[in-house]
Specification:
The complex is a heterodimer of chains A (814) and B (156). Chain A is an alpha/beta fold and 814 residues long. Chain A is 29% helix and 17% strand. Classes of the chains: A alpha/beta (814), B mainly alpha (156). The structure holds iron/sulfur cluster.
Chain lengths: 814, 156
Amino acid sequence: MTDRIADIWGERTPHAKGTVWPARVDQHLEDGIDEEQVEQWVPSACLLCSNGCGCDIAVKGGRMVGIRGRAGDVVNHGRLGPKGLYGSTAWSRSADRLTRPMIRVDGVLTECDWDTAMARIVERSKQLSPLEHGFYTSGQLFLEEYYTLAVIGKAGIGTPHMDGNTRLCTATAAAALKESFGADGQPGSYTDIEHCDAIFLYGHNMAETQTVLWSRILDRTRADDPPVLVCVDPRRTKVAEEAERTGGVHLAPRVGTNLALMNGLTREILHRGWVDEKWVAAHTLGIDDLRAIVEPYTPEHVAEICGIDAEKVTRAAEIFGTSANVLSTVLQGFYQSHQATASAVSVNNLHLLRGLIGRPGSGILQMNGQPTAQNNRECGADGDLPGFRNWDNEQHVRELAGLWNVDPLTIPHWAPPTHAMQIFSYAEEGSIRLLWISATNPAVSMPESARIRRTLAGEQCFVVVQDLFLTETARLADVVLPAAGWGEKTGTFTNVNRVVHLSEKAVEPPGEALSDLQIFLRYAGAMDFRDDDGNPLIPWRTPEEAFDAWREASRGRPSDYSGLSYAKLRGSGIPWPVTDAAPEGTDRLYTDAVFPTATDRCETYGHDLLTGGTVTEQEHRALRPDGRAFLKGAEYTPAHEPVSDEYPLLYTTGRTVYQFHTRTKTGRAESLRRAAPDMWVEMSPPDAAGLGIDEGDVVRVESPRGWLEAPVRIGHVKEGTVFAPFHYGGDPGRQANELTMTVWDPVSKQPTFKTAACRVTKVREGGWPAPAPTTAASAPAGAGVPPTAGGAPTVSRVVPVPSYPNDPASIGGR
Amino acid sequence: MYLVIYLGLARHAEQTMADSLRTVGQGHAQHPDVLFTCQALAKMSDEHVRRLTPIVERYGEQRHGPEVSEPERLHAEGLASVRTGPVGLLRDLQDLHVLGTLTQTTWTVVRQAAQGLRDAELIAVCDHASRQNSRQLSWLNTRLKAAAPQPLIVGG
Ligand code: SF4
């Protein structure tokens, strides 16, 4: 019986390089429930981080009462982490679930029936022109729901104002892949972990954000022939510790200087002859420009900008340059920071320069923050067109118009779809007059949250919120719609390494809650959207029919689902593309070193990484990329808000291990809630000492935009930096995003949550210690803080290793 | 030699471009991308002025020729203040675009002369500046396209 709060990654199952990751089934059942009492195990995948672990939901008496991993699943081989185990089902029975629609009557949200609520929305919607509509969605819905919403928005209403909170977490991943390879889609696979010789984690605290993936890495680093790890992070995370343990490096660049470091690494690779010249000449474009851009970034110059040792830069470059196979993973430390896309693209560049792509062990995982982010991007309910189509390519738009039987002019494609920050800005100005928010909580998650609250509360914009709970955002809405959650509806979603899972309905949603698909279909019906022949624009009714429609939309595109069906997915997760040629899916892309960059195929013609200016079709065509990948660079520029006398410390934010999103679900699971019950901030010992602050003292952290008050954990953050976890909502005075800036990356349009200046003042002595967990990167620097523990019991069983159809180690015979 | 007049014109045009970019950026600071990108683009123009200055000095600056007095006229066209609102932003970006085009064609003209004079240093400055001008114009164009429909159709 394991306490998986104390033991986050579970027991090790170390194994040698090139062998299959052993299977182990993790299980948690609610207090008082025995395995024999479980009436049904319903197949699904976990929705609490981007990993998407295959699992079965335990059902008893019409309720979800627990969860276990699926041994045969390619993603997790049966394992689950603390969030999956403790947080998957507890929220579903919370007394505060929304069960009836609500509309605002005399300023007060008042319960009503569905017809009344929908009539209120439709009445408003029909008064408004297409450009007065905006949709802001989530990384929490299913593919079928996103695709349906995409058709409603793009072909029914015809608005370009559609985006998701995926903009806050993975927009840079998508942008970086598009800039380098011509289209979205991870080149790598999780199976690279078993075959690589080095792993680079750039701004990726995997030990906390994707605990099961981290246990997969630990099972390699704790074996006799471990890969060497390199970690780039301003905090001393478990990843950083493991990097040093394996003989690698922990690089802790000053917040906002990632690109300078990447330019330095690139220069080393170029100067020290680690370039695969022949491969580069055959399969890439742009090496001369890249060489010129990175030339000034000597290790010494980089050391000065980033505040790290020059030798560490050269050592890291050497590990990259001399390891036979390297896996790189990138996340928010890069994506939500200054010069995000340029930094993420540099990671792709390093792989291209060495030709480390398309073979086992040499993968790139431009990670996602959320489990369904990938399919939001694929389906086009965010700032992309369905099927990774190029808004700037008339032929691609005509394909969609043909699919939906509408005039191509209906589909807004005069510019890229409006990004989230701009949508909120239009809502603030009053030119978007109906904003429909589904399954996300921007009042907490967006930068400068006070400004977002003002916008949503204002009279200028009619706000519809569809969610499980009356969140901070829902409280500001004009109409609130109760939605069914995970396990209460059927649909598919796709994780970062392209593995598609079918998540089946296990129980009925509470009260009158409806699935997001049903809600969108109701709206489409009430609006009576028609195609050019006068038939209903959206003919499908069930999730499976929506999936089949999507399958056609994806056919022939890089994210090809044409060989997939619900029946096929009832086995377990399968990575796309799945086609007649690859009926069991595709473990890795670009094995032939042909990239989707041809002008007629690519998803974008590309951008200037410094300014975001778009490359035109003519310019792209003149380059004749024809399947070659782009090497692209940009010069480092200082971050937007440097420290000053008034605000002398750098402010940065991040996710921690026991929480997800704005804690809508994880905050309602007792084991997780108790492990990290309340807001805290982290400071380094010298900074705290300088201000006379002890562990647990309450401080006020202020930036030019806002403030928060919370107890201090004196921990392992880099000197000069203050870290705040960004999950806590509730009172404005405890939200990390009160302080962050409204500024975004020029290419990906992802907001910068990780660079701002702040000052700290002590408010009062605290009730020692701070409510931060001790088990991961938030561990205290000093002794004496009681260890975080006390999770409900779970079981783990090592089971015989099944055969995984696409796993190179499995295929290699075992 | 009229080249010296054109060298002066190039320098003025870049200086005006830098100043106008900063003005527009600050004036529309509620759009953070406009603010920060205009600042980055202004730095490009600063750099052109810096690299051109010793060459101008080498040739000896002459601001007026018998038939040419463009530098002053151009200077007057710089953006000293900004318009307000979303349509105002569009108009300001358009003005910057006009200015940027003038700057770019000035470099084209200067480069032709530099080639005739086999002045390698000046050719290098022209090439660099033209490339950076293209980046400026490309961003202005991108931003204009994205910003246009909303204010023109739903006002505000
Ligand atoms: S690693 Fe992520 S997907 Fe897997 S169980 Fe944990 S939270 Fe769920």
